[in-house]
Structure formats: structure tokens, C-alpha cells
Input
Amino acid sequence: MRTLFQFRLHHYPLVAAVFCLGIGTAAARVVRGNLDPLWGLIAVVLLSLCLPVLKRKPETRLWTLGALTFVFLGFFQGDRALTWNQDFRPPDSQVVVHATVLSVSATKPGARTLILGSGTVAAAGMPLPGKGRLFLRHNDVGLEYGDRIAFHSRVRRPVNRGNPGEFDWELYNINNKIAWLASAHGSGSLIILRRGVRAHPRALVFHLRETMANFLETRAALALPEDDRRAVRAVLKGIILGDRGELDVPVGRGDERSLSEAFAASGLAHMLSASGLHVGIVVLMVVAGVRVAVRAVPMVLLWLPAKKIAAVAAIPAIVTYCLIVGSRIPAIRAAVIGTVAAWAILCDHKWNSFNILALAALVILLGYPLALFSPGFQLSFAAVAGILLAVTPLWERLGKNKTHATSSWSGDADAYPVRDSFDVVSRLKRHFGMLLMTTMAAGLAALPFLLETFHMFPSYTLFSNLPAGFLLTASLSFGLPATLVGTVVPQLGAVLLVPAEAAVWGIVRIASFFSDLPGSTLSPPSWGNLHFALVLAAAFAVLWYARMPSRKRLWVAVAAACAAACALTSGFWWKGDKNHLTVVFLNVGQADAAFVKAPGSKGLIIDGGIKNRYFDTGKSILLPFLRWGAVSSLDGVVVTHPEVDHMGGVPSVIKDIRPERLWLNVHKISVPLHEQLVDTAHLLKIPIEYADRSCPPVKLGRGELVFLNKPCRTISGGGSSNVVNNASVICRIAYGDISFLFTGDLMEEGEEEILASGMRLDSTVLKVGHHGSRSSSTERFLDRVRPAIAV
Output
């Protein structure tokens, strides 16, 4: 008799294949290229476990061998993907690079990100592996697919900074076969060696996308105020083209947060990149167009039913849209599902939704094995799996109830108007309920992966997605045709784009409203593999209950949810570092930023790294780190001195996590970023306190903070570099026998003044002055500090 497990395997063979492929890929990441002797041990263990099973029925042998095949395939593919570029060593100096333009991944005014192929170092004839990413700024040269270009740049490998909680940038690039990075700046920084073939299919898609982007940049939202125009244009580019290049612009209406921050906090981030929802809207547009065409020319139904006509039209529309938005993982997943479903309709075949979803995963993982670890893959497939698991059976039950109600209807002709109005109301209620259930199921299934990747969960995602979902349908339904028309007739396209602009403006305002509510995001106080497993089990149990409610499943779901809640909330009252002084020196390039947490304290930030028009340490490094550590408040922030590499990221931090105080030594100086920081603190009502040796010791939980520097309240004008550096805040943090000394950019003159003051300097760990410059850390100073460790 066939067991339940075998029965499920027969119904979901592709699901089993993806599961085994994923196990092999995950094992390859754990091994990370070290095949011997661990690889042999794994093989022996797997085979020994499978030997008893292989003695059974031939059918069982087939399933077992198939599973092992996919496990080994996943392992070899994952290992090859992880190690393909490990021997690449870029040149030490700037070189001239020749490369071929493949695509434009992101654009913003004055900047583009190009994906390049066939790169070579011109002088040495050295081929560059894989693809390259070129950050091109202030260069408006017109480029097309296949153009051979030359530029002068330093070539670098994409590597992680090593900060806790950071996005795995290295793995992301490896998965996309990007092996090197470069940048070029200025009008003469790039030349075209030869033009590509314009008739190539990818060249046509490239040109169409560039023309659509140009239309949106020059014609979108011209009637709106400047702040609203920038926000609406950025969101339109994200929704229609999958271009997220301008999402760092402010939300507008006095809200200085970026669009990406507001959309993430409101639970609407998925709307900013092309996903299954966007592909679904494209399919609905095709279906609506087919219905109109069939009504206009009903004779076509003699050759082909309307459903099959829609399926024929949907396949090229899905593929074209996927190519326009850059073939990202969510779009590929939706394209595969939509294409297979349309083909099944054409062939009059039934399909299994889980198998189609697994087929999409299989296609992606065979091409991009490391996509398994990317947030886009995890969130996209988890959300769809949650919908299929919980919502699809409910939809089928509602469909049966609807059929039964229709068949049992009785009444005379006079009752038909009442029946019609009743059907409309009932249909609206049913669709609203299904939208609600779909949002809940997708959010619940994605919850573990959101917490694992972003260390936070948007509290109001259910309420924000309901109105924003309708507006997204309107914005893409009007925006995509209008943009296509605008590539030919810009004036007409701009008129047709107005409804889409209004819908996008509404989405932006919804994101701003919900992200500004108290408690808009929740962050677990501690997070690890156990927490992830418990939350994943709880989400699955709840969805399993929703699929087919029963008392037994209800008890299982309640128990799993309680276990996950207890594990997460336990972090509020239990801390594993009760008796440890934690100091994290963050890698922020040639700049300074550190986090200090003494037992019983909330935490302290000392300096905030650099900020320029392209990069903000506060947003990109400090805030992700603080969310990873579940830091929701701070005892204070110390800015050692008013230079951009020490204070640049602080404004972004204090806007998001408001500290109890801001410590400064220099209070008045004609430096725009310093003035902005002071104004921001006043606006947020954050007290600014003096940080010098006249300040009494500050208790940080069971630790102590002491300022050692002399007062320097004002520096006339912008001040010379030496004067500003020697005005640095010098602070010593001690807990028990352990102490840390932070010296900012203190130079030899400032060190001599500290030595003459007689202040206590001996410390276990020294953060060396001025980034280790020869102008600091003199022998006399080090003799007084006598550190065991220098950073």
C-alpha cells in the first residue's frame, strides 16, 4: 500500500527536486570549496542511510536515486558558483579597461550603473572574468547594447565590509556573475570604441527600456510640486521599469525620509520592484484587451475561444515585460509561472500550482544556484507558497459555494434586478475578503525571511497593502501603456500618464502615513537560527490550519505560535551579554564609527562615518547594524569633531533612533554638515551637551564614560584641519578592569596637551588617532596609554 509520503511525492515531484537541490546548495555554502575530507564523509553518510531504502521496491529506488542526483547537482553547482572567481586579483593601480555594454541596472540624474561583459585590461591584455559593474557619473554619452567602450578606472573585487548585520554584497554579485567593479566620473571619462549591432533582440529591448526611462525622466509628474515630482517619478520608474535608482529621494511634504525607508517601514517595499504582482497586473491588462477585441470582432471566437486567445497574447507580454524590468528573480519566477499556466490553457491541460512554483524555482536555481540565499528569491517564493497553501483552497471552496448558490436560485423575472445587485455586492465582498486573505498569507509566509534579512517587520503591512494594492493596479495599468505611447508621441503619453501619476502619488502618501505611525516597525531583540526555525514553523502551522481548519491543526498552530512568541519576547528580559562590555568598531572605509554598550546601558555611538551625494554611512551601515542588534534607543551619540568622515552618518541615525543626548566639543563652526546636525538635533529636541574634561563622569549602565579633552566651543570660520583635529573629543570608557580610549583625529600637539593635563590615559584598547596617521600616536603618548590592543 502506498504510504502518504510516497503519495505526496507522486503529486509534487518538482517540489521534492527543488528541496533536494536546495539541500545540496546549502551544503556547498557550508563547505565553501573545502571538498576533502568533509565531502567524502557526507557522501558516505548519505549512501549508508540510503542503502536500506534501496533494497525495497524499484519505485522507491528511483525516487531515492533521483533525490541523491539533485542533492549532488545542487552541491556541485553551488560549489562551482562560490569558487569560480576566488583566484581573481585585480590590478593594484588604475588601468584602461575595454568592455561591452550589456544593460543598465539603475539610473538617477547624473548617474548610471552599467553591467558590462567581455572586459579586458587594455595595456596588459588581461581578460577580466565574468561581468563588471560600472558606476558612471556625470557622463551623458548615449549607450546601446553591444557598444564596446573604454574607460580609465581602478578595478576592484566586490567584497563585504565584515560588519554585523550587513547585506551580503559579495554573495549577491557572485550570484549575478559580477566579478569586478569600476567607476568613471566626468564627461571625458568614457569613450565608445565601436557600436553594437542594433538589430539584436537584446539591443531592441535595451533601446526600448532606455527610451521609456527617458520619457519618465522628462515628462512624468510635471504638474506636481518639485518634491512630489521627484518622488512620483522615482516610484513610476520602479513600478514600470524595475529601476530603483532614485529611491533615495525624500518622500516629500516635509518628510525627509527616503522613499526606500518609508516603503520598507510601511510594508510596501515589494511594490517598488517588478514582481509577481506586477506580472499579474500585466496579464490582467492583456485579458481585458482581449475581451474588448473579442467584443469588437466576435468572429474570432469561431477559430479560438477567448480564454486561449488571452493565453496566446499573455505569453509574449509576460516575456517582454520580464526583459524590460531586467529579468530579476521575482519577475523570472512570475514569468515562468505565467508562461506555463498559459501553455496549459492552450493545451487544455490541468496544472498543479505547487509544481509550477517549484518549476520556476528549479529554472532559477539551475541558472543562478546562489539565488537560494538572496532575499528576492526567499521573499518571493515564500509569499507565493503561503498564498497557494492557505488562500487557494479557500478560493476553491468559495467558488463551490457560489456555484451552489447560483444553482439553487429560484424566483420570477421581477426578482432579477435584486439578484443582480446582490451578486455585485457579494462579489465585491468576496474579492475584498480574498485580497485580505492573500495579503495576510503572503505576509505571514514572508515574516521569517523578513526578520532574518532585514531584522524588522512592518507592523501595518496588512492595512497599507489593501488601499495601495488597488492604486498599484491603476498605476501600472495606466502607466505602462502611457509610457509605451510616450516613446512614440511624448505629448500624448504625458496626458495618458496622469491617472498613473495620481495613483502613485496616493501610494507615496500611504507609505508616508503608515511609516510615520508609532511602532511602524518591530524588531526582535535577539535573532538566531533557533528563532528563525521557530518562526518559520509557526508560520507554516498557521497556514496549514488555514488550508483545512480542524481542531487538531488549530492546537498545533497555537502551540507553534506561542513557542515562537516566547522565543522572540524572551530577548526583552534575557540578554546573553549581561556582564560584558561590547565595543564594535565598524568598517566604514577611511572614516570612524563605533558602537559601545556597557552592561545595563542602551548603547552609545561614537562618530558616524562619511556621507556624500552617493553614500550615507548612517543609512547604509549604522542603521542596519543597529537593527541587527535590536537597538531601538541610545544613551547618546558622541561626535568627536566636525569633519565629514566622523559626523556624516550621524544625522540619519538620530532621525531614526533618537538618542537621549548628543555630545559635542565644538558647538559653533561654519561647516554646513555640522550646522545641519545641530539643526536636526534641535528639531528633534535632542539635548546637546558639552563633551570635555569639565563634564563629570557619565554612567552608562555599569560602565563609566569620561571626557579627557580641553574645551573648544567655537572655531572661527571653517578652521584649519589641524585646529579641528586637535579639538577632537577624547573619551575613555571603563567597565571593571577593561577600558577603551577613543582619540578621534587627535594629532601630536593635542596629545602633548592631554599628557600635560595629567588625565588618566591607561587603557586596555586604544582607538589610534587620525586613522593611524604618522602625525598621531607619538611614543610618549603610547607610553602613557600602554594599550594591550590598538585598533
Remarks:
- The CA atoms of residues 349 and 538 lie 35 Å apart.
- Residues 1-7, 403-419 have pLDDT under 50 and may be disordered.
